[in-house]
Queue: 2 jobs
Job 1
Amino acid sequence: MADYKGIKGFKVTSIAGDPTNKVVGDVYYDTTANALKFVGGPSGTWASGGTMPDTKMGGGSAGTQTANLQFGGGTNAPLNGNQVDTTFSYDGTSWTAGGAMGTIRFAMGSFGASNTAAIAVAGSASPGSSSKAETESYNGTSWTEVADLLTARGEGLGAAGIQGAGLVFGGYDRPGTTNVTLTEQWNGTSWTEVNDLNTARQGPGGCGITTAALCIGGDLTPQTAITEQWNGTSWTEVNDLNKARNHAASSGTSTLALFFGGQAPGACAETEQWNGTSWTEVGDLSTGRYLLGGSLAGTALSALAAGGGSSPAGTDATEEWTVSDTTVKTVTVS
Amino acid sequence: MANKYCTATNTGKGFFTHEDRRQFYLSGHAGDVWVVGDNFFGDTWIDRVSGISKTRAEAQAIVDGKVEEAQAAYDALSTEEKEIGLQSRPQKYYLP
């Protein structure tokens, strides 16, 4: 049988630990771990992030992995009995409390580029998960009510955009009893109804901007895998998720996005990446969770999962998704 | 793949790293239960986080207990509250 030296012309290098300069394809023996390793190509993983000041699920979120905002929602299920107005701001290392929301609510629509510029719109509130229409704007310190959505709705709206230009879609009309297809566009001052989704749903994910967005999954009872793409004018159905789910979180753009967590109906840990054409499963959260917060203005290479309902209670744990240029893998022989 | 089981409190940033996730299987469950890939790196992580080793049956019992607590809370809700609660009844599952 050919050995490594016979094939490559040199022996496998032995070093204590991992090399500083990693080159894809390198093979070496780690004498510290007593393991044969090789350097693979880019891949993403979730690592633990800072713990939030309190448990939070069903809140709104905005920003990136290192400048993130989580607000409203509840501390635990049921959300009607545990709703909160708290805001938590993340700097990539630790969380601090921000200004309280003016309208207490959960399962809202939300978007914004950072932890100092966010919009919260619509959502559900106790008693009875009644639908809200209020829109509030965050400046890094406090929330200010700015305008109402044209059609009140809750139980999870998809969203995309930044503080001055956003989009919300879907949701559930309560006290009515229907999922909605309605899409409304925010210009920084007021809402305008634009073209509907093709498939009504509550609790979809969303990402992108007002001219290029995604509506991902959601709940049609049962959960759906349907994905739609917005081109600034209308929605077109594109390829489905691999795993149907609702109340998940997302990060990225309409051509390169990450979708993670959710409910199917149990808490999901799966992470899928969208490349503009199709979804591929790329890795799992350490802990499955639904009604979690994301990083709408993040990327598919750098994302944040915050809080959520975690098999089964609300959690204060966060996880950070990062894609590295190279990946050290251990060779196992069985 | 064999796994080990422990309880450990998630202390936040650095509790598990990207390197950890590449080197061994790790999943977190109710009751601070962690399922850890059975290799050198997994063992090292359990030591690092002061994990308390459990048998699979012990770990499963902790998770089951937490799910049963949540099921009881869910069952105590009114029919209307269940319909509008945005969550389904928690279900027991087997640890990997």
Job 2
Amino acid sequence: MLSTLILSVALAAPPKAGCLELKTIAQTEEVVIDESGQRRVQLVPAAKIVPGTEVIWTITANNVCAAPAANVAIDNPVPAEMSYVDGTALGVGSQIAFSLDGQRFGAPDQLQVREADGESRPARADEYRHIRFEFKNPIAPGQMAIARYRAKLK
Amino acid sequence: MISLPCRLRYAGFIALALTSVGGAQSAWALGTAASTPINNRATVSYSVGAVAQAPIESSPSGNSTPGAGNGADTGFVVDNRINVTVTRLSPSVVTNPGAVNVVAEFQVSNTGNAAQAYQLAVTNLTGGVVLGNTDNQDMANLRAFVDVNGNGAYDAGDTATSITTLAADADVRVFVVADTPLAATNGQFANVRLTATTAVNNTPATVLTQTTGAETPGTVDVVFGDTAGAGDAARDGLHSADGQYAIQSAALAIAKASTVISDPFNGTTTPKSIPGATIEYAITLTNSGTVSATGVSIADLIPANTTFVTGAYAGTTDVRLTVGATDTFCVAEVGTDTNADGCVRVAGELRVAAPLLGSVLSGPGNAATVRFRVTID
């Protein structure tokens, strides 16, 4: 009874700022010719997205507290209309796991899909519905954890 | 030898055989529809001083307020990818000189991700090679009509000359309709090109233009994603395919020869063309075209100073027709063809028509030879 009461009070209180500022941006690649005449690929805010376009999702977790943040894990569901592009998940200092259902996470070779005939087969990258980046080291104050992957619009 | 004028009339004709390719529908997976919003929101969990903290959701500009619902989606809307494909359905369409409303079938497919309208244009090619055949004839009265009722056949209801709306992943049949010039000859090819130009959905009069400049977040931009067609470039919002009319016609040649059959002195042994001699004329019609010549008739002036021989052939007949190994005969009455066998003598000429002589099939083996005899006065 007492615990329930405390919980209710906690919920009613205005939300208190956390220690991480989480930001998601969508970008696409654009080929530009730089001043020396070289072709260069640069990332621009997501533009002209049609079926087949690859979008680069970048998630940053910026430590806005004075204390380090440990056990930082960024979980991102892949948008339903998009397919994860195999091998593109990148998060420096993180261990990357995938999930087909958002519940069970694992390395690509641990994910199996059960077919209608009861046979199991390895999951394809375009079947991953969640990506989780688990950062091994604490994020120091003022530092940032960066997670990035590509997904293609179906 | 007596050489005489000879007139020939014929009309080349075959039943128009329209070949249709039915039911071949494309099965592209065309992707997410234009204007669909795509949203993404990440969540971070962490701990401070070994104490797990409430998870935080992401937002486009950064969010640090913990709790579900305090973040915001990062997203965009799917843009309008224009992708149109024109496909020729008919193989080479066989036609005959003078034939009207000859149909060649095409298909316009919307392989983009939104419904579009399309303008249709059909032109004669000049010298282009289609299906291995070089264009050397133009069709007349070229038109393009949409199979509005979707029954796969060109009929009275198909009068629309543009496609008002075509859903993503849908296709519609388009009929190119043309007339074959009378001057066209056997073995010629008339190659034509159908072009579909993407227009504003439900407003086919307005051609769609590509959005230039930077993406406008939250609005649906137009992006041309079409491939190059038979006569257009990639990513130009239009597509084209070529079709072909193959002209087939009868091509009749006529030859006339004469032989002395007998004379009053030598009989049938090395007869000479002297008064009283019997001469046989042989008029041979050969069709070197690819289709039968029908309605064929000949008229041959009976030479002056000769007399037409009646009863010269089997069964007291006057004219002998030979086609291959088959002989048929008729009687050439004077004035009126009273027995309606196709032979008559009028105005000093012999006329041979149907039913004795009506059609000449193609090929040298089907050559028709008409024979009759005269005596020299």
